[in-house]
Amino acid sequence: MRTPIVLFSLLGCLALVQPAVAQDTGGKPADSKQAAKAGKGDRAGKGDKADAPAKPRVPFLRPEGAYADLAESGFDVTSLLTGGAAPAKPFFPFLDAVQALAKLPETEVVLDLSGGAGFSQPQLREVERALQAARAAGKTITCYVENVDTGTFRLAAQCDRILMADMGAMDMRSAAMSVPHFKDALDLLGVQVEVTRVGAFKGAVEPYMLPTMSDHLRAHYEAMLRSMNDDSVRAIASGRKLQPEVVRAMQAERLLTAKEAKARGLVDQLVPWNGAQRALAAVRGDEAFDYADVGPKKKKKKESLDFMSLMTGMFSGGKKEKKIDEPTVVVMHLAGQIVDGDKPSAGSMVSGPAVAKLDELAANEHVKGVVVRINSPGGSATASEAIRNALSRLAAKKPVVFSMGDLAASGGYWITTIGQPILAEVGTITGSIGVFGMRFQPGALMRRLGVHTEIVRLDDGPLMDAMDRPWSDAARGRMQAFVDDIYVRFLQNVAASRSKTTEQVDAIAGGRVWSGQQAVENGLVDAIGGVGDAIAMVKKRASLGDDFEVRHQPEPTNFADSLLSSFFDAQVAAGVERGALQQLLGQVGHLGEVLGLLREALAGDGSAKVYALMPPGLRVR
Questions:
Q1: What are the tens digits of pLDDT across the range 571-614?
Q2: Long-range contacts at 491-499 (CB < 8 A, ≥ 24 apart)
Q3: Residue 431 pLDDT greater than 60, yes or no
Q4: Domain 315-613 adopts which CATH fold?
Q5: Can you give the pLDDT at residue 601?
């Protein structure tokens, strides 16, 4: 009876923040109010309008906020409860806007990076290519920055000229990651985690088994970080005509003032903190130009925020996918933790709906080829195999090329093992070829609470599911044999797909994670490239001309889907005091792998499940 109360409490909170949610989803124009005034107030008097010369048009592009490959259109309950930021914007419409710069009639364009844009490493590489293509097409790109981090500056370095606000700062942070360990907390709670695994490098289970990271895993992660960071250093050094070791030395210093950044050749000119439009006017020496926002099209603000219109907007169906009835290359997004099931769940790659969608694409004669864009840390081994089989059926009928985003690890790599081309970015985390069985066993906690369970049974088999007691040696052995068998299948899939022996695959498997560049060197990935490169490969393999459409699928879900599809979020929200909930979600709410395992623990029957899942929280920034 408490769930409705929680739901309407959330709706009440949502009503308070709805103006922010209803804002446009594209890049926000810099100094838009001033631009409007400049477009009116600086013109000649009424009597001279006919004689006034037309001002040159200067296209401005301003990314702002976080971007996701497949942004959910709704609202995230976790963000609401923890005071999180606004939902991410869809990345590929913004990338289209950057690519369109090359075709504009104007030769001068401005990239305003003062909006705090958040891109992943693979996304940065895609935008970097688009900026380079615009310059190759004869565009002169001026970039304006205020406070800038390494990722943002990587884009700025691809421009012809960088203007930096004189009170700004540069944070040249090198690549790093933070991996939480839960062993001490679980011991304190009285929860034991029982694990069967293959491979000393299966870091997915270390956070639950060890209070700190093992030395050999730390060294392995450092090598991966070095590979990723070298790519950022390369982009900055080549763009600013500096030596890579000079950029690395500045990363070690980390913080630079605007004056230091200019003195070291990182920026070209310091300007007052007045925004991109005034900065351009200052360096041009005049204001005789018209501001033109060329970012993605924006949604109109909702005029009515009454309760009924809010409810209608939230719980109406999401965008209905357009029927594909002309030659089309589909970019199929497979994102989120891989789970078994028949119903869609926002933020997860559910086997049933994913298989149905892939089979639908295979049957549609108008779909000429498919780019499979993967952003997944893995998940259920059985669900991964179901999706892999569907992809194999699809590839038997039309060209398929894989494009890896931020993550395509463990189960996310498993589904690529069908012998088709694989592209990744240097900043992609992939590999993690390994499996493990795991279950949470809160026996000590139950005893502290005075709970004792009697299991009436005919033999010892049912004891494998008992939540209040550890496995016997015999039960653990049976589970280990099951895990070993699935690991061998994983090795065989990879070996057949990549033309290797299982011994060769095992030498780079065992749970090891790799950067995209390392994966190319190890033969797990074919080449470094993005979605555009994958589309070009599909086009060539399908013998397509230029008359075809590119369609991204599936469409994002609405808020109701995001709210009601998560069993774990609903359970916790209905039964836990708000303060405790905020603390819990504040610690693990951004770790999809942890939440996935907790969902399984809450919804399951105490039995162990076999996962092909990468380490929790393994994100590089």
A1: 444 444 444 444 544 454 455 565 556 555 555 555 567 888 87
A2: 491/433, 493/388, 493/414, 493/417, 494/413, 494/417, 494/433, 494/524, 496/417, 496/419, 497/416, 497/417, 497/418, 497/419, 498/417, 498/523, 498/524
A3: yes
A4: 2-enoyl-CoA Hydratase; Chain A, domain 1 (3.90.226)
A5: 55
| Contact call for residues 194 and 601 (beta carbons, < 8 A) | no
CA–CA separation, 71 and 558 (whole Å): 11
CB 488 within 8 Å of CB 505? no
Look at phi and psi of residue 511 and say left if phi exceeds 0, alpha if psi is from -120 to 50, else beta.
left
**Fold of the CATH domain 26-45+53-173+254-293:** 2-enoyl-CoA Hydratase; Chain A, domain 1 (3.90.226)
Identify the three-state secondary structure at position 564.
helix
Taking only the tens place, the pLDDT of each residue in 378-406 is 999 999 999 999 999 999 999 999 999 99
The residue to which tokens 């009835």 are assigned: 325
Contact 159, 143 (CB under 8 A): yes
Number of C-beta neighbours around residue 115 at 10 A: 17
Prior bond of 296 cis (ω within 30°)? no
pLDDT in tens, 260-315: 999 999 999 999 999 999 999 988 888 888 889 999 977 655 444 444 454 444 44
Kindly tell me if the per-residue pLDDT of 55 is higher than 60: yes
Range(s) for CATH 3.90.226.10 in the chain?
26-45+53-173+254-293, 315-613
pTM of the full structure: 0.79
Q: For residue range 453-476, list pLDDT tens digits in order.
A: 777 767 776 667 777 777 788 888
| Nearest-angstrom CA–CA distance, 306 and 22 | 13
Residue in 100, 161, 114, 133 with CA at minimum distance from that of residue 284: 161
Higher per-residue pLDDT: 205 or 103: 103
Looking at residue 66, what DSSP letter applies? Answer: B
Q: What span, in angstroms and rounded, lies between the C-alpha atoms of 12 and 7?
A: 9
Q: Mention every residue, 6+ apart, whose C-beta is less than 8 A from residue 148.
A: 113, 156, 164, 168, 169, 170, 171
Hey, is 168 helix, strand or coil?
A: coil
* Lowest mean pLDDT segment, chosen from 128-137, 320-329, 380-389, 530-539: 320-329
CA-to-CA distance for 364 and 327, rounded, in angstroms?
Answer: 10
Measuring CA to CA, which residue among 496, 531, 464 is closest to residue 98? 531
